Amino acid sequence: MNNTDNPLKLLITEFAHDFATWLLNKPIQAVRPLNVEFPANPVRSDLLFELVEPYGGRLFLHFELQGRSSHKPMPYRELDYMHHIAIREIPLPLLPESPRLHSVVLYIGEGAGRGDTGHYTIYGPGGAIALHWQYQPIRLWELEAQNLLQLGQPALAALIGLTRLQQPEQELPQALTHIRSVDDETQRNQLLTTLITLLPTEEVTKMVEKLLEENETLLIDTPYLRRMRQLGWQEGVQAGRQEGRQEGRQEGRQEGMELGLREAVLEAVIRRFNPPAADYRRLQQQLEQIHQPNDLQQILLSLFDAPDMAAILPLAEQMIQNKTRNLSAD
Q1: Are residues 232 and 271 in contact, defined by beta-carbon separation less than 8 angstroms?
Q2: In degrees rounded to 5, what are phi and psi of residue 204?
Q3: Do the beta carbons of residue 267 and residue 240 sit within 8 Å?
Q4: What's the whole-model pTM score?
Q5: For 160-164, 196-200, 250-254, which range has the lowest pLDDT when averaged over its residues?
Q6: For residues 65 and 80, is the Cβ–Cβ distance under 8 A?
Q7: pLDDT 10s digits, 249-258
């Protein structure tokens, strides 16, 4: 599922308010992303947000993204995640005003999550309930695209490639209409790119390409889109090297190497840190200003030891400043 994992995470992170409103079916006052890696424990969930409701209550919204297979049964994975979130974020004693917790599993791909009810109970002696936990399973592949489009939310329209497209010749133009209604150009472009990335087949992708306007067509072959279609860190590095070799033969070895290394750095950052969309875009802009393969390779190697994104952004900025000083000296 890695080829959809990254763009879907970025979409949910950037438009968390829209997703929270959709899943909870209630207004939300504020949304704040949280770190989802638990100290001194290998457990890591996908996405976690703290929500503030209109009346002031707090709720933790947890997302898991899952394809057709899992190394551990999802019910027990969810139990593990929820128990760590509760220990860290919801202290005892548990009171009526204590923060609440809602966990969602987004199943991706035909058949994923079939049979998962989201409700599980372990009984004790005499049939008493020893343990009960629940979460919200959403099988995106079962959702009708039209039902999602009727909600009128551009962020949700970008998801329709993961849903059931019954009449793509009607549903795809509707999705584009919703996305084009977004005033912010950066967000509009991100939604359009995500829509294309998540489309299920080349045939459907070509249908969207025919519907795009000239300026939108330019987005189809962006580095972001190519990167989101790759399958993970190792594949990203290999694809980066291959792109470097191919581009190098066509336009010069160094230029091709630069492109490959940038692709590899960005893919590695996503896999290691799953950064906020703003930090991701900042790094992407920084890398475009770095043209020395040795510098790009240094950033790539530093990712193995970097504790977080905060260690990478200053390194890239320093390289840009060094380049500026060198040009001034010349």
Answers
A1: yes
A2: -70, -40
A3: yes
A4: 0.66
A5: 250-254
A6: no
A7: 444 455 666 7
